[in-house]
Amino acid sequence: IGIVLGIPVVICLMLLAFAAPALNSGPKDLPVAVSGPGPAVEQITTMMSTAQPGAIEAHTYDSAEAAADAIRNREAVGGITLGPEGVTIQIASGAGAPYAQMLRGIGTQMASGGQQVTYEDLAPLSEKDAAGASLTILALPLIFGGMASAAALVLGYRGRVTARVLAALGIALLGGFVATAILQFGFGTLDGDYLATSLTVAAGIASISLVVLGLGLLLGPAGIGLGAVLMLFISNPLSGMATGPLFLPQPWGAIGQYLPLGASGTALRSVAYFDGAGATHAWIVLACWMLVGIALAYAGA
Question: pLDDT per residue over 185-199, tens digit each?
Fold first, then answer.
């Protein structure tokens, strides 16, 4: 009776976990940097709020350089600069494809009104990955790499806890360098610093692996199942790997940033496209999950 009733409940929860963010995602209070003369800024702000009510939260800056710095520091998803020569739409493709698409749509609307519009990409994607699919592709390898290594170390290796923890870290480190090499040198979809990107991928794998390892050593096979539910059916749909967390319905996008996969996605975007800016919170979250996993592993011992 438990199996017959329990599995449909799990299916319903899985459907809700994946469908709710997908069906309710969209722009909501997205921070956009606006700079230029006061009257022109007020006019463009009014235009944006009228065209897409509640979608954009305009942040005013004194100059185009200040707005660009805010975008590079991941304080804004893009910007609009108004000057004597026309309008410059500042986008950051690495922050997520939906934000760049939204700003291009605003630029098209302004151009149709007779204004001179130019575009400047402050965080461009690789030429071979114009859609920004690299991070989306990395989501399942991160989850599978972490879960598979943890399951193998719980079920197939009988060494000491310290040896298992070190093995999990070693697998994560090697996996991070291999996965990054495939994407960067094999497919050419990443252009950032290879060492920094590899270590970031490794941190994502390690945060998942250590938590599942700790749960497995503490609770046995049931702990591995619990870790799989946490990582695959909760952390995955709330991670914002494909779009960035701001495009997800809130507070789910914010909650996802406190889970391993969401923090990994943010750290990877920052390292790969923004020279590491805006990743402090993500690194703290990943470190905390790794420490929790290690604590659970020793508690299980």
Answer: 999 988 889 999 999
Cα atoms in the Cβ-side hemisphere of radius 13 Å centred on 187: 15
Tokens 């899985």 sit at which residue? Answer: 14
pTM score, whole prediction: 0.91
Residue among 206, 201, 216, 213 at smallest CA distance from 264: 201
Name the amino acid, one letter, at 136: T
Instruction: Read off the pLDDT of residues 245-295 as tens digits, 9 standing for 90 and up.
Output: 998 888 888 999 999 999 999 999 999 999 999 999 999 999 999 999 999
**Residues 72-99, mean pLDDT to the nearest whole number:** 92
**DSSP state letters, the chain:** -HHHHHHHHHHHHHHHHHHHHHHH----SEEEEEES-HHHHHHHHHHHHHHSTTTEEEEEESSHHHHHHHHHTTS-SEEEEEETTEEEEEE-GGG-HHHHHHHHHHHHHHHHTT--EEEEESSPPPTT-TT--HHHHHHHHHHHHHHHHHHHHHHS--S-HHHHHHHHHHHHHHHHHHHHHIIIIIS----S-HHHHHHHHHHHHHHHHHHHHHHHHHHTHHHHHHHHIIIIIIITTTS-TTT-GGGSPTTHHHHHTTSHHHHHHHHHHHHHHSTTTT-HHHHHHHHHHHHHHHHHHHHH-
